[in-house]
User: Which sequence fits this backbone?
């Protein structure tokens, strides 16, 4: 892959990140790479291992997980904030990705947290914490 093509592909991925909360189509995203939608789809999947839509869904669900724990808003509001118009679609995609319904996920993680609207320390993988905090001393 040429540097120019990689740069355009990278720019289109950044476009998804910057606009995940808005309705996005394959054509909208492909325009930023100056490729046809179908060629863009193939190249994106080859390079990143997932389709642009799979990436968008994963990004939206990750943002929703954060919002469900740290913000005081309803599941419907989170659904809208991450770019879904249908609560049913959002909930089924969330269950498919996370294994829990959004409300159950929220309740489970809030039960672990000692402080309201704060991500519970127990939910952060130790390897991730060690990477950012260094080796913990006893």
Assistant:
């Amino acid at each position: 892959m040429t540097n120019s093509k990689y740069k355009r592909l990278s720019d289109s991925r950044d476009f998804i990140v910057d606009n995940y909360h808005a309705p996005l189509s394959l054509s909208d995203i492909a325009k930023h790479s100056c490729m046809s939608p179908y060629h863009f789809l193939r190249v994106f999947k080859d390079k990143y291992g997932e389709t642009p839509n799979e990436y968008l869904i994963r990004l939206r669900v990750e943002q929703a997980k954060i919002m469900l724990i740290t913000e005081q808003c309803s599941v419907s509001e989170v659904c809208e904030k991450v770019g879904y118009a249908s609560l049913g679609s959002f909930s089924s995609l969330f269950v498919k990705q996370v294994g829990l319904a959004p409300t159950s996920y929220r309740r489970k993680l809030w039960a672990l947290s000692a402080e309201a609207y704060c991500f519970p320390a127990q939910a952060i993988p130790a390897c991730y914490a060690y990477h950012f905090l260094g080796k913990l001393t006893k």
Notes: The chain has a mean pLDDT of 86. Helices lie at 3-18, 26-31, 37-48, 52-70, 75-81, 87-98, 102-112, 126-133. Residues 24 and 65 are 20 Å apart (CA to CA).
